[in-house]
Design goal:
Number of strands: 8
Largest sheet: 4 strands, antiparallel
Number of domains: 1
Strand content: 35-45%
CATH class: Mainly Beta
CATH topology: Jelly Rolls
Number of helices: 0
Order of helices and strands: EEEEEEEE
Distance between the termini: 18 Å
Structural class: mainly beta
Radius of gyration: 13 Å
């Protein structure tokens, strides 16, 4: 069951911080496709840790997952994302509270 769900804008001009809203151990960030029948429009660059010059290319329509098997604290920057081209709205979904065994 998802915990905190937030949305925000991301574009290709500069990486945007991915910040935990609540205590969680997994954060997924994906394009917010909120209209029936609409499709994702761009791929994402996932930077981890934040400020890194290297990134993982996340294919269009796929979530960027931040998961280190540790508990992220509210306000903690867990990484950054940026679009490959254009600007979009993303949805960030946080789950778990470090209960993995």
């Amino acid at each position: 069951m998802p915990g905190a769900i937030t949305t925000y804008a991301v574009d290709n001009t500069a990486p945007v911080n991915v910040v935990a809203v609540q205590s969680c151990d997994r954060i997924e960030v994906r394009e917010n496709v909120d209209m029936e029948g609409s499709l994702p429009t761009t791929a994402l660059k996932q930077f981890k840790p934040a400020g890194s010059s290297q990134y993982a290319l996340i294919p269009q329509g796929t979530a960027a997952v931040f998961e280190d098997f540790v508990v992220y604290n509210p306000g903690q920057i867990v990484g950054q994302i940026q679009t490959v081209s254009g600007s979009i709205t993303v949805v960030q979904v946080e789950t778990g509270k470090g209960s993995r065994g």
